[in-house]
From TrEMBL:
Catalytic reaction(s) noted: Eliminative cleavage of (1->4)-alpha-D-galacturonan to give oligosaccharides with 4-deoxy-alpha-D-galact-4-enuronosyl groups at their non-reducing ends
SUPFAM superfamilies referenced in this protein's UniProt entry, alphabetically: Pectin lyase-like (SSF51126)
Annotated Pfam families: Pectate_lyase_4
The protein's name: Pectate lyase
Cofactor(s) in the UniProt record: Ca(2+)
PANTHER family reported for this sequence: PECTATE LYASE, PECTATE LYASE 18-RELATED
Enzyme class, UniProt record, top EC level: lyase
GO molecular function terms listed in the Swiss-Prot or TrEMBL record: metal ion binding; pectate lyase activity
Pathway assignment: Glycan metabolism; pectin degradation; 2-dehydro-3-deoxy-D-gluconate from pectin: step 2/5
Source organism of this protein record: Fraxinus pennsylvanica
Residue intervals passing through the bilayer: 460-477
Cofactor: record remark: Binds 1 Ca(2+) ion. Required for its activity.
Length: 486
């Protein structure tokens, strides 16, 4: 028995070592991270430069152009509502591959209620997000959706609040766990409270026990290809957006953050090595009233912070530990009055002798009211200087690039309609009224292309081969051992 166990353990070790060696050769820790993050950064810069140049040339003919490449991609089309899924072509940065529900059916949410987290009612948001097929989810009217428990979102979904005033609040809020390809666009998310210790459905065929959630606005765990755009987030119990446990390929853009302490966490903990492959783009956001810290707070990974407007913080704006790469380009940082809180950056619980080698760099940032950014490591060198064709646009254009941050067409700051502590919105026009329209299956609309899910990526060939070898040797070892007993 002992020799067979030793052989089995040895095979596991060899298989994992082969996978680790291949990953290190490519400098990858996650199977879906981009192998060249600097190329993604330069492509973001190129897209911004092209949009701004187009605006300068065509400003007299087209008043819709802002220079923001995401907005200019779809908002200039007066018939955008007839081709909503074009939005999926407009993302930039690490999350630009997020398909959302592109290619699937339109699902119209007609019912704002959330009575049963285990058996959601057709026509509700909860019923839409758990489906196994790609769906582009829109809303029949303005509505406030007060969640009973966390809303677990399945792969290949777009939550598209354009054309309606959609508020999501209550218990748990949005959970993205072990999934891919989700777009969340134009919704208010606030007053999210811890919830759980109950059965919550995550797909048409699975409902399972959920422990108590943290009360994040949006919780991203072990997920990839995520794009959050034009949302307004505030007043949650834990983080407004948390991305942990090997999540990657994420873009957070054009959103408005306000009235919160710990705004955004990227990385599970300092010892979680897989988060070294986390790659996140944070672009064209407004960090506004009542914010304290973590815009974001990073562990490991590569974080590109580009063309954001940081107007408020009480402790610091960008922090981190465990050697993350932070690339800050073309942002405006306005320091608070407090003379002890002028520094943009914070290395959390780390001695200078350790963090002075971390790659934290600033390029083209505007530092206002005494703000200062402390670069380190490769960020102190000039090796990242770019040609003028791809350099980050000046922070002097921040007002233009972030002028529409938040939910388009409504108040950008959630504090206008809520009070801290978890109550429902009072200033929003609630549609749906908690009841459906009475029509059978009217929440499915027209079909754009195929309703089949795009082909998902296969597991690593190296890992698969290793597991097959381990299984074969284990079977052979057991078979030989059985023969020896005859």
């Amino acid at each position: 028995m002992l020799p067979r166990t030793c052989i089995f353990l040895y095979c596991i070790f060899i298989g994992l070592s082969s996978f680790s060696a291949a990953a290190s050769l490519l400098n990858l820790t996650l199977p879906h991270q981009h192998p060249n993050p600097e190329a993604v950064v330069q492509e973001v810069q190129r897209r911004v430069n092209v949009s701004i140049s187009r605006r300068q040339m065509l400003s007299e003919q087209s008043q819709c152009l802002t220079g923001n490449p995401i907005d200019d991609c779809w908002r200039c089309d007066p018939n955008w509502a007839a081709n909503r899924q074009h939005l999926a072509d407009c993302a930039i940065g690490f999350g630009q591959g997020a398909l959302g529900g592109k290619g699937g059916q339109i699902y119209v949410v007609t019912d704002s209620s959330d009575h049963d987290s285990a058996n959601p009612t057709p026509g509700t948001l909860r019923h839409a997000v758990i489906q196994d097929v790609p769906l582009w989810i829109i809303f029949q009217s303005n509505m406030v959706i007060k969640l009973k428990h966390e809303l677990i979102i399945n792969s290949y979904k777009t939550i598209d609040g354009r054309g309606a005033n959609v508020h999501i609040t209550g218990n748990g809020c949005l959970t993205l766990q072990l999934i891919s390809n989700v777009i969340i666009h134009s919704v208010h998310i606030y007053n999210c409270l811890p919830s759980g210790n109950t059965i919550v459905r995550s797909s048409p065929t699975h409902a399972g026990w959920r422990g108590k959630s943290d009360g994040d606005g949006i919780s991203i765990s072990s997920s990839r290809n995520i794009w959050i755009d034009h949302c307004a987030l505030s007043h949650c119990t834990d983080g407004l957006i948390d991305a942990i446990l090997g999540s990657t390929a994420i873009t957070i853009s054009n959103s408005y953050f306000s009235h919160h302490d710990e705004v955004m966490l990227l990385g599970h903990n300092d010892k979680y090595l897989a988060d070294s492959g986390m790659q996140v783009t944070i672009a064209f956001n407004h960090f506004g009233e009542g914010l304290v810290q973590r815009m974001p707070r990073c562990r490991r990974g590569y974080i590109h912070v580009v063309n954001n407007d940081f107007t408020k913080w009480e402790m610091y704006a960008i922090g981190g530990s465990a050697n993350p790469t932070i690339n800050s380009q073309g942002n405006r940082y306005t320091a608070p009055v407090d003379p002890n809180a002028k520094e943009v950056t914070k290395r959390v619980d780390t001695d200078e002798g350790e963090w002075n080698g971390w790659n934290w760099r600033t390029e083209g940032d505007m530092l206002v009211n005494g703000a200062f950014f402390v670069p380190s490591g490769e960020g102190l060198s000039t090796q990242y200087a770019k040609a003028s064709s791809v350099e980050p646009r000046s922070a002097g254009l921040i007002d233009l690039l972030t002028m529409n941050a938040g939910v388009i067409g409504g108040p950008r700051d959630n504090s206008i309609s809520i009070s801290y502590g978890g109550g429902a919105a009072t200033g929003a026009t609630a549609g749906g009224g908690g009841g459906s329209s009475g029509r059978d299956d009217d929440f499915f609309g027209m079909i754009f292309g195929s309703g089949a899910a795009p082909t998902k990526s296969s597991p690593s060939a190296i890992m698969l081969l290793s597991l097959l070898i381990i299984l074969s040797l284990y079977i052979m070892t057991n078979h030989i051992g059985s023969l020896s007993l005859l």
